[in-house]
Amino acid sequence: MSSHRASQPDPCAFCAIVAGTAPASLVHEDALTLAFVDLRQANPGHVLVIPKVHVSDVRYLDEATGAALMHSVSRVTRAVGRAFPNNGLSLWHSIGEAAFQEVPHLHIHVHPRLIGDNLLRIYPEPPTIADQATRDRLAIRVRDALASERDNTP
């Protein structure tokens, strides 16, 4: 088992929610996943969906847990979209410090969006548009990395 799945030296807030030792406002639970209302509500209805097993990020998901997680994300996203005012929805998962991951337990944010809410600005300024040759070179790098993958290590 990868160290990213093993017990963490510091208590994991989300594992405590799964264990029932920390409070949470649950919205969904099945055998492999749990969904609860996020503490921060920039727009009402911000929900987190997590695997029950401690996995630091999406790179360490096994197939069954990944499938269950995406099924729950889909269901919760539909429910949030029906339950709260929105002009759209954002889903996101951050990996590591540079991406501002705050809790080292995989979690998918489901966030109702309103026009002009200025949440989750992706690019500080418009990025350059890559030409086809550049995109093809980038695709080769990813295909090569996929071909050399032996396990779920990043």
UniProtKB/TrEMBL annotation:
GO terms for biological process: nucleotide metabolic process. The active site is at H107. Gene3D superfamilies: HIT-like. Residues 13-120 form the HIT domain. InterPro entries: Histidine_triad_HIT, HIT-like, HIT-like_sf. A motif (Histidine triad motif) lies at residues 105-109. One of its GO terms (molecular function) is catalytic activity. SUPFAM superfamilies: HIT-like. This is HIT domain-containing protein. It comes from Arenimonas metalli CF5-1. The lineage of its organism: Bacteria, Pseudomonadati, Pseudomonadota, Gammaproteobacteria, Lysobacterales.
